[in-house]
């Protein structure tokens, strides 16, 4: 049923000897969550084309991508916690000194250093794992070729 209340029946036939998967981009919760994860993993280059390892029907995103997403969520949570702690400390200091500054004038010390370290592009790591490519051996070969 679409937004106008029109209902349609869709018949899908698979003439191939392998399974196919299809989904509604508007209603599939897993697809929408994976889109959000990929946008975060790929960054500003998301609208451009990028390679991903193939997936079987119903399979999740590559573990490298999911781990990156979880690490980014932890990082954001840590940063929010640090910011909240710094704001609370600034309020407590202002109250103790009796000079409550307006919120927009108050300087909030914020530590951008994260305790979660995420390195490398998770998409590239997933593709290299899929292709069984060892980054360290490639680097060694490249350095040997240079002399």
From TrEMBL:
Cellular component aspect of the GO annotation: axoneme
GO BP, sorted A to Z: axonemal central apparatus assembly; cilium movement
Stretches assigned to coiled coil: 68-95
Keyword Coiled coil belongs to the record: yes
Keywords, comma-separated and alphabetical: Coiled coil
Top-level taxon: Eukaryota
InterPro entries the UniProt entry points to: Hydin-like (IPR033305)
Keyword Coiled coil: yes
Protein name per the record: HYDIN protein
Organism lineage: Eukaryota, Metazoa, Chordata, Craniata, Vertebrata
């Amino acid at each position: 049923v679409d937004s106008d209340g029109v209902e349609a029946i869709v018949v899908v036939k698979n003439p191939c000897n392998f399974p196919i998967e299809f989904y509604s981009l508007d209603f599939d919760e897993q697809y929408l969550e994976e889109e959000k994860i990929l946008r975060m993993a790929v960054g500003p280059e998301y609208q451009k084309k990028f390679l991903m390892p193939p997936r079987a029907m119903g399979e999740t995103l590559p573990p490298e991508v999911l781990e990156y997403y979880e690490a980014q969520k932890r990082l954001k949570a840590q940063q929010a916690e640090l910011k909240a702690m710094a704001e609370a400390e600034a309020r407590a200091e202002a109250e103790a000194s009796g000079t409550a500054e307006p919120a927009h004038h108050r300087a909030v010390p914020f530590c951008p250093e994260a305790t979660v370290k995420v390195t490398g592009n998770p998409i590239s790591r997933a593709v290299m794992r899929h292709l069984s490519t060892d980054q360290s051996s490639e680097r060694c070969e490249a350095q040997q070729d240079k002399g």
